[in-house]
Write a structure and sequence with these properties.
Number of domains: 2
CATH class of the largest domain: Alpha Beta
Radius of gyration: 20 Å
Strand content: 15-25%
Largest sheet: 4 strands, parallel
Structural class: alpha/beta
Number of strands: 10
Number of helices: 8
Helix content: 25-40%
Length: 314
């Protein structure tokens, strides 16, 4: 079995920003190239969203942050991206190597410990190091850490979006389906469930009848049953046949979370079976100011971490 090593941060969740919050003032970080990374998408809107997050994070931490997806986004025509091509992880590293850069720090725009961040990226870094031994890549923690029960910042972002939607739609006492993409790693689903519990505690039962955490999709097989329930089975079940708010645990629009995307299609299909069903999706979390506060903290933790390694263990 293999696992990623590294990324263990000094003063892991208690460090404070130095020099008024400007991480760039920390000693020895001037030559580190900083990225914010998502999974990537074939939709231009997702790349624009990542670019916006990079700009906002850059202003917060006082250091250049490059928007670089892990995969996929280079398939988008630059004409659809204001003439600026999207960048993805490995080609970006090689381009920066030509400029003499060997040290990188990645801030993941991933809510939980996705295989993309915990497995794929460390594996690729280790492979690159075979012919580029000077390469160092630090990976900051993901957005949510379920062990920190008192940290409700991500849940508060979701609650803010839910309250905005309730007021906008004029709902009386809606049910809430908190939906993520679904994942092959149970740790990601544990983040979903953790946020679902926090959101339920933060929303008044007098104003919101139910809160159920669910996933948009899952892989086949009993080993992935932890993703249940699926959104398609929640919207339309008892308690979810009248007013339903779909709380979107997605950072950016794309083929899943964007207008007319997979989540919307699932809800539209359910509405065809229940004439009284009124549903609405919340705004995505990437545009909320609070996400930048969390990412800035993760950024600092990443800067203080050790370079990631991928090694074989028993």
């Amino acid at each position: 079995m293999k696992r990623a090593k590294g990324g263990d941060c000094v003063d892991f969740y208690g460090a404070k920003f130095e020099n008024g919050g400007r991480v760039g003032a920390m000693s020895g970080v001037e030559d580190i190239c900083c990225l914010i990374t998502d999974n990537g998408s074939y939709r231009p809107e997702a790349t624009f969203s990542l670019r916006s997050l990079a700009e906002r994070l850059e202003k917060k931490v006082g250091q250049k942050v490059h928007p670089v997806s892990l995969l996929h986004s280079t398939k988008i025509s630059p004409e659809k991206l204001d003439g600026v091509p999207a960048e993805i992880f490995e080609p970006f590293l090689h381009r920066m190597r030509e400029e003499g850069v060997n040290r990188f720090m990645v801030t993941p725009m991933f809510f939980g410990p996705s295989a993309a961040i915990k497995e794929f990226m460390p594996q690729r870094v280790e492979e690159l190091r075979k012919e580029w031994p000077e390469l160092e890549v630090r990976i900051a923690p993901c957005v949510v850490e379920p062990l920190l029960e008192n940290d409700r910042r991500m849940a508060q972002i979701l609650v803010d979006r839910i309250l905005e939607t309730k007021e906008r739609e004029g709902f009386a006492r809606p049910a809430v389906a908190l939906v993520d993409h679904g994942a092959p790693r149970i740790g990601v689903t544990e983040v979903r469930n953790h946020l679902g519990r926090q959101v339920r505690e933060m929303l008044s039962e007098g104003d919101f009848s139910e809160v159920v955490a669910c996933s948009m999709e899952r892989r086949e097989g009993d080993e992935y049953a932890f993703n249940e329930p699926l959104l398609e089975n929640v919207v339309g079940m008892d308690g979810f046949r009248e007013e339903v708010i779909v709380s979107m645990l997605f950072a950016s629009p794309g083929r899943h979370a964007g207008p007319g995307g997979d989540v919307a299609q699932i809800c539209e299909e359910a509405a065809e079976s229940y004439a009284g069903l009124r549903w609405c999706m919340t705004e995505l979390v990437g545009g909320h100011d609070g996400i930048v506060e969390i990412l800035a903290e993760r950024f600092e933790q990443g800067m203080r971490s050790e370079p990631v390694r991928w090694e074989e263990v028993c």
